[in-house]
Structure to design on (126 residues):
């Protein structure tokens, strides 16, 4: 079921369950602000998801409601993840989907980290 841009936070979403330890994940990095883990259906040689620990539906929701320290901590974690994955020299792509047209599936804000090889064009028309 696609997530609309206006859905409220649902604490039964799959990433909330991963954060609670109810579902296993392949963790890359964790700190007080963020958890990073491999995507279950990778779309690039490296495909990792970075999620904040707090309950935010989307990037805009996160920016609007999270305390400044959580926002700073989250983005620092994204940078650390790129380093841990060895992507800094060759580069990588960050992507966050919001709502129906973007095909957002999970209503917990997440940043996709893609890398490990040339990534092609930025978007393809559906
Ligand atoms: P979205 O389309 O919401 O931006 O991306 C959701 C991502 O979560 C997809 O790339 C999908 O493969 C991934 N995903 C969905 N369920 C799980 C899961 O249970 N574990 C992991 N590791 N990834 C998941």
């Amino acid at each position: 079921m696609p997530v609309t841009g206006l859905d409220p936070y649902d604490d039964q979403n799959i990433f909330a369950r991963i954060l609670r330890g109810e579902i296993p994940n392949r963790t890359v990095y964790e700190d007080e602000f963020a958890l990073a883990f491999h995507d279950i259906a990778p779309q690039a040689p490296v495909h990792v998801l970075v999620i904040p620990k707090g309950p935010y539906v989307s990037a805009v929701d996160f920016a609007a409601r999270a305390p400044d320290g959580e926002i700073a901590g989250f983005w620092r974690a994204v940078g650390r993840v790129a380093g841990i994955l060895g992507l800094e020299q060759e580069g990588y792509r960050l992507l966050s989907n919001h709502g129906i047209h973007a095909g957002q599936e999970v209503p917990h804000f997440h940043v996709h980290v893609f890398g490990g090889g040339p990534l092609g064009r930025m978007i393809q028309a559906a």
In short: The chain has one domain: 14-115.
